[in-house]
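Two proteins, back to back. First:
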Amino acid sequence: MAMVTSCWRDFGNSTGSSALELASVRPDWTISGRIVHIPESQNTATGSRFAVESSRTLSLATDVKIDIVTIFPEIAEAPLRSSIMGRAAESGAVAFAFHNLRDFTTDKHRQVDDAPFGGGPGMVMKPEPFFSAVEALRTENAKVILLTPQGTPFIQAKAVELSEEDHLIFLCGHYEGVDHRVVEALVDEEISIGDYVLTNGALAAAVVADALIRLIPGVLGDEKSAEVESFSGDGSRVEAPHYTRPAEFRGLEVPPVLLSGNHAAIEEWRLLMAEKRTREKRPDLL
């Protein structure tokens, strides 16, 4: 579910705006719990030159704000408006905003890239739109992150760290990369989701956002889920295998210990299996 950060500028910090206050200012907006629906025809960025191009919603009393700046906002938006991520937005645990980088250009062609100085293949993303976007979106507690193959590898510990931030702005690269002045002047941290190259950073932004949002208290149905899974704790092991009904399927049986009801024995088995699987599958973690 998309969220509009421009509204935060109109009404101040979203965590301090009640549905009643918003309804009194804009009675044409539909209030449902902590979600405000904004009609498609309206430009909610009052006093701003950046218009909202489609129907959006604004979540009240959010724990984390996430702005994603990309030339393909629909790519980042699709996975984050569904399932657990969508419910997290509806509950107010997180507020998403998906921004088209071209909306922050000033030329009639809405150009976001140009040929690299010094020659070479491909195109480089221009600095001006990124500067305009960050200057429009940045708040006092915002952390600006560039998704790039040159960044620090993204691991579970980093997801935990980012889940405790108040406001994250993800900048998504494309083509041959981003003008390095963006990194030098705007970016607080560069993150890579792996040693491979994607067609654009919007996919990486969605991956990082999903990993951190699920760690926000209340997002997962069972709080213990995030505590006992792979890479949790000290991040030194993967988790034990899981089984569910039926207890026997095509001659394949569930380990008897899991059916014993002996919780101490089950816990010991899971620890042993986690260590065994880590040695076999991810010895680099040991």
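And the second protein:
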Amino acid sequence: DFDNIVNSRLQQVVEVKPPMPARYFRLTALRTVNDNDLASAADLSVLVQEQAEAATTPAADSADAARPVTPREARSAFDRPIVLGPDDKPAFPDAPPNIDAKRADIAHGKLEVAEYNSKTVGTTRKMLVYLPPGYDSDKKYPVLYLLHGIGGNEYEWTGYCHADVILDNLIADGKAVPMIVVMPNGRAQKDDRPPANVFAAAPAFAVFERDLLDDVIPAVQSRYSVYADREHRALAGLSMGGGQTLNFGLGHPDVFAWVGAFSSAPNTKPPGELLPDPVQAQGLRLLWLSAGNKDGLINISQGVHRYLKQCNVPHVWHVDGHGHDAATWKSNLYLFAQRLFQPRQPGECHSPTASDGTSENRLDIESSQTDSTPGTR
């Protein structure tokens, strides 16, 4: 059955010993998998659902703080009661079906692996880069830095959520500005592969802040034809990467003007620490928070939303009908990407509470200008 196939494959590729429940791990070495192995069992790009994205906060006493979080403990974070409030509803309709279906009748972007020297980690590291269709080094492009979850790596967004296909389709339909998408490995340590207990590497996700700012961004700016100002730089991520996005994006509003956190994990700083001076966030072009109403970790994002609302910080709060899963991450990337790098439009900056009670900083996505280009502000 599926669990047996996955456990066997995990042992071969990432050295996880059976009978570890398959739901706790995802195969991240996607390129090494024979596509025929699981053709009838699951999406070929994903072997297992990431269901253990939480519980990265150390225990109170020093002995427990040094002990890695177990999968059982991680699972308990998802089993907490979900309490929804009046604000916890969709800001936008669900993305239409087949947003990640590859279309033969449009131009496609290019995925390439780029190496860079990480002074932070002290080694050469890799990142996956999406270049939009028709990339031209004589033009300049905005950049979205897209961060993965605790069990993923630089291939998660394309292998699991088909981010490159979503961007191809949006750009072809004139719904998104052509942009470069950089997908680094957010586990900033010399051996950046996910360990058997993925939570053991949680501290490396905090170290990645310096790797991103001091090494990744300069490498991208030296290698690709990109704008180097904050107005053309966005940061987004899922789960653990959502927590990183809030920690780094709100911590450096001089670097990122567009911030999108999807299903943020418990690595997210407490709201008051995340944004001690709410005025700092006023200059953001877009601050997007999202979670599914079936996600056991929704309380993390709820807490941030309530704090932002209390401080009158404009933001999108989008709660869809999904869980902690690829469906919500695909949908939010689809919605978020359409808003990036667009000219300011009437009604873009609302107070946190809209007339219908939905907390949002809303722009009519479907009416976004299709001829928008970077720099047209």
